[in-house]
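Workshop exercise sheet. Pairs work together: one partner reads the sequence aloud, the other fills in the structure field after running the prediction. Swap roles for the next sheet.
Pair: D.N. / O.F.
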Amino acid sequence: MAAIDSSWELMVFVEELGPDAEPVTLRVTGSTHIGGVMLQTVEAIKISKNWSDHAVWWEQKRMWLLKTNWTLDKYGILADARLHYMPQHRPISLLLPNMRTVRLKASFSSPVFQCVVGICRLLNIRHPEELSLLRAPEEKEKKKKKEKDPSAEAVHDLTGLVLSGGSKQQQVYNGMPAYFTDSPETEECYRVLSVSRTSLTPENIMKRYRPGSLLEKAQINSRWLDSSRSLMQQDVKENDNLWLRFKYYSFFDLEPKYDMVRINQLYEQARWAVLLEEIDCTEEEMMVFAALQYHINKLSLTSKRPEVHRDSGLDDLDTALSHLEVKLGGSSATDVLDSLTDIPELKDTLRILRPKRLTLKGYKPHWVVFKDTSISCYKSKEECLGEPVQQLNLKGCEVVPDVNVTGQKFCIKLLVPSPEGMSEVYLRCDNEHQYANWMAACRLAAKGKTMADSTYQSEIENILSFLTLQKSNPDSSQVSADSDNVNTQALVSPRYQKKFKPKQLTPRILEAHQNVAQLSLMDAKMRFIQAWQSLPDFGVSYFLVRFKGCRKDEILGIANNRLIRIDLSVGDVVKTWRYSNMRQWNVNWDIRQVAIEFDEHINVAFSCISANCKIVHEYIGGYIFMSTRAKDQNETLNEELFHKLTGGHEAL
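Structure field:
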């Protein structure tokens, strides 16, 4: 009978039967659908349990057979196929941005993008599109030592957590999601997620890997997982160690009421970036970061329970009113007319230095006019009706602060695109208010915006508040009273641990603390994140590449609004390209080359050396996706658009 009908034998390995068990043999035809194979398998093994999380994995093709209505013929499955019937969700160890490890169940069958959405929903982190997973670095000899290390950090188990209901907005009790209140252990896990670490020691910092060069920073970015393929397809095994990190430095709609965990993890990622010297900062800036950490530690130790916010109905009313204000404010015809006709200008005497011009040996005073997105320099105010000595269009330029508040140095370094590369110009301001006005204007102009933009005033205020944090404000009684409680070496990076003794650091940190002592816990974390965002190198991810037609390797920096070409030997910016000028980009997967076309027929092509070109392609597409988000989208995530922009030839 078997020979007459068209059926044949198909073998399915069932994980529950053990690794050495024989496969289950089924009788099937080409028209048998995957759901039928699963049903036959369960009936054959006679084990009574909930099989709803199980699916079929095709070993040779390295793919999940998730379309259960598809037939074996449609998938192209023949008798020699090695199929495995196994759970889709499996435990992994996840190192969070705060360097704490949690064990939780993650989807091994959905694309990593969806997997991260599931992880973030469990951890109560909004906007999961900003995060992704990296492989942990390989541990060789150190691993054996670590196993014997009694100070190894605890792993917090979340594999038993069950999300309540299907609504996006989880119920909250005592300031935490309801599903974390099941036991004292899960409540402690929520504290681990939402409260910053206060017990750091200098040894904690020293034992972590610190990238010492651009090349080493580039190596870190080679470990990102592919967002359009599943964990199983990328050889991740059950109980493997992975890292969860904010990948895209474009943080949308940070809201303390909903984002306790998100803001804390973001603060911790910023804090570790500073402590591990992944981002450079000046001595003054380091003291500000140290003072904010000290303040946050003090408040975290005294707050037993997360800050509970006021009634959500009142907040929703406030939100509705503010949206209404925006609509009404934006609809005035006279406002629109004013913004079209009356673009603010800046006119003042600034000292200017052009270091690559041999004619200028030092700063020279000029009358400078900032109009639209351009700066015009004149020898004096009287000559401003004539031709300028120099005119710079700042659209697409790099704007770098060069400030020492104590030394009253307020400089703006401009790297302006030119045919030969980037021409360097320094503007020196007399005081912090002049600096804030000009710096804010330069930052907007670099993005192609003028001072008529609604964000100009808030940009000035942010700059001034960051400068205020760096001011000396000694209160000797307070400094001496608190000096015994400061573990200063754990608040600064190893470079400053070596440079200063604790006796020197403590008074400086406590002095800086006077400027932030009135901040609430959440405000202090937000201020730390904003200070991190103000650093010149913030948000740049590095890759080792070789540009087409060049013989030497260079560094490509990818930021949220631009690509940066960097000289590997000296670290100087060679060229900047903005996404706003990008027409299209494509990838030649065979030779691992990314080709990009910009306005004015500028073509850029490079091959990726330190990482798979899919990672670079995903970064560029990911940042373009982040820029499409808007508050009126009602928090629905357009996953299809993300995969279109980042998926390449494997796009869903």
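Discussion prompt: Residues 141-151, 308-312, 325-340 have pLDDT under 50 and may be disordered. What would you look at next?
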